[in-house]
Amino acid sequence: MPHVVVKMYPGSSEEQKNKLSEEITKSIMTIVNKPEGAVSVAIEEVAENEWMDKVYDAEIRPNLEKLYKKPGY
């Protein structure tokens, strides 16, 4: 614990995805004081033309009250 899932458009390199995962892990370790071994990070690519249906309508909109950072679109 915790497990973080990042959903994003395709196009980022493996290097960028690894760096993002490392930075998320470091932040969790620092801010909520969890050991590295307790953190897992997944990155799921979602095509831009599928974003609204698969992510916004299915996950974001129904859970707006749970979001600490809401999208601006």
Describe the structure.
This protein is α+β, with helices and mostly antiparallel strands and 73 residues long. It has one domain: Macrophage Migration Inhibitory Factor (2-Layer Sandwich), CATH 3.30.429.10. Helix content is 38%, strand content 16%. The chain has two helices and two strands; from the N terminus they run E-H-E-H. It has helices at 14-31, 51-60; strands at residues 3-8, 40-45. The protein has a two-stranded parallel ribbon. The model has no long low-confidence stretch (mean pLDDT 98).
User: Low-confidence spans: pLDDT under 50, at least 5 residues?
Assistant: none
Order of strands in the sheet with most strands: 1-2
Number of helices: 2
Radius of gyration: 14 Å
Annotated CATH homologous superfamily: Macrophage Migration Inhibitory Factor
Count of distinct strands: 2
Beta-strand share of residues: 15-25%
**Helix content range:** 25-40%
Distance between the termini: 30 Å
Number of separate domains:
1
Descriptive key words:
73 residues, alpha+beta, Macrophage Migration Inhibitory Factor, two-stranded parallel sheet, 2 helices, 2 strands, 38% helix, 16% strand, globular
Topology:
Blueprint: E1 3-8, H1 14-31, E2 40-45, H2 51-60
Parallel strand pairs: 1-2
Outline:
The chain is 38% helix and 16% strand. The chain is an alpha+beta fold.
